[in-house]
Amino acid sequence: MSTTPATSTSTTSTSRTVTLITGGNKGIGFETARQLSALGHLVYIGSRDAERGEKAAAELGVRSVQLDVTDDASVAAALASIDAAEGRLDVLVHNAGVLETGFDTAAALRTFDTNAVGIVRVTEAALPLLARSANPNVVTVSSSMGSFWAVNNPERAESRAPLQLYAASKSAATMLTVQYAKTHPGIKFNALEPGTTATDMTAAFGIGRPVQDSARVVVRLATLGADGPTGTLQDENGELAW
């Protein structure tokens, strides 16, 4: 359900960039929604909890859809709702993610279902809508923890972080980005390292910079022109090895 009425024929919808951000009710996703809305995007935030999503959307002045990236029916319904209202999708931001500190089968299944399989679920459902965009763009919030280069470089903090499942799932997220870029050359697909950020995910570690700084990395890739790069992993300084 959107927080404001939407129709596919409205001037507002047809002239603005239509953007969906998964996991958008808090953290980097919430701040990305704020910044993109300020730039004129018509933003939908996807949230597992519909009530929390509506509350966040009302605070931001954007729209909300119930979207659980681990549930096929939820994903299909969310994209169908956007399709009915807007008729297309211009920007998709894969922001939903989990960080499991355990290392067992159950934790692995939860981690990969959200951080990797969830990307496939949402992308596949979104592809028909992205195909109707004049400048389709998919951005994945990945991590340099998924970079072989970074985790094997003793000069980088990633080499000392004991986050096995998170790292492996982010490797998968970046590889999915590369493979989607190859199979859909008419759509830009880029992954990013947002920088260590103070969110609920990192609260237990007591680390991270302001969410506004990291969201700007997402926004830069979410606002690429038609001639922008594709199939890359980037941070705020440009392309990263991985």
Class of secondary structure makeup: alpha/beta
CATH top-level class: Alpha Beta
How many domains make up the coordinates? 1
**Structure annotation, total helices:** 8
Shape field: globular
| Termini separation | 39 Å
Describe the structure.
This protein is α/β, with parallel strands linked by helices and 242 residues long. The protein has one domain: Rossmann fold (3-Layer(aba) Sandwich), CATH 3.40.50.720. The protein has helices at residues 11-15, 27-38, 50-60, 72-86, 105-130, 148-151, 164-183, 211-222, and strands at 18-22, 42-47, 63-66, 91-94, 137-141, 188-192, 232-235, 238-239. The protein has an 8-stranded mixed β-sheet with strand order 3-2-1-4-5-6-7-8, sandwiched between helices. Strand 4 (91-94), helix 5 (105-130) and strand 5 form a beta-alpha-beta unit. Helix 2 (27-38) packs across helix 8. The protein is globular and about 50 Å long. The model is unreliable at 1-12 (pLDDT under 50).
